[in-house]
């Protein structure tokens, strides 16, 4: 994702999955503790839904929407840590594993190809 984007500008944007299905609306943005770079977005998944955490890298801002390169079902099944609180390193690691992201090098993520 663009690293020069103001994280506050993401709040309120609609989020869509890799197939163009609407996931929900960005509620909050979480910054990396060490770098201050936006790292996670909490996306409200419905009127009475919950917030699902999605990685901002490798997501993209396209026009007025956030495109998340994962299936909607995977996003909705992400661990629920609640919003409004700090994500611990252990919680972040659980999220990286959930999305199959390689965290071996900071800022160097690998998204596995979709399985057929």
TrEMBL record:
Domain PRC-barrel: 8-61
Annotated signal sequence range: none
Organism: Streptomyces katrae
Domain of life assignment: Bacteria
Gene3D superfamilies: Photosynthetic Reaction Center, subunit H, domain 2
GO terms under cellular component: plasma membrane light-harvesting complex
Protein name: Photosystem reaction center subunit H
One biological process term in Gene Ontology: photosynthesis, light reaction
Residue ranges that the Swiss-Prot or TrEMBL entry lists as coiled coil: none
Pfam families attached to this UniProt entry: PRC
């Amino acid at each position: 994702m663009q690293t020069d984007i103001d994280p506050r500008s993401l709040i309120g944007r609609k989020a869509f999955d890799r197939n163009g299905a609407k996931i929900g609306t960005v509620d909050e943005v979480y910054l990396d503790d060490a770098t201050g770079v936006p790292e996670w977005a909490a996306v409200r998944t419905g009127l009475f839904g919950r917030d699902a955490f999605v990685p901002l890298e490798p997501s993209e801002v396209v026009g007025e929407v956030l495109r998340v390169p994962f299936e909607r079902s995977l996003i909705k099944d992400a661990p629920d840590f609640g919003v409004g609180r700090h994500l611990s390193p252990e919680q972040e690691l659980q999220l990286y594993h959930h999305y199959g992201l390689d965290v071996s090098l900071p800022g160097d993520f690998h998204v596995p190809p979709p399985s057929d």
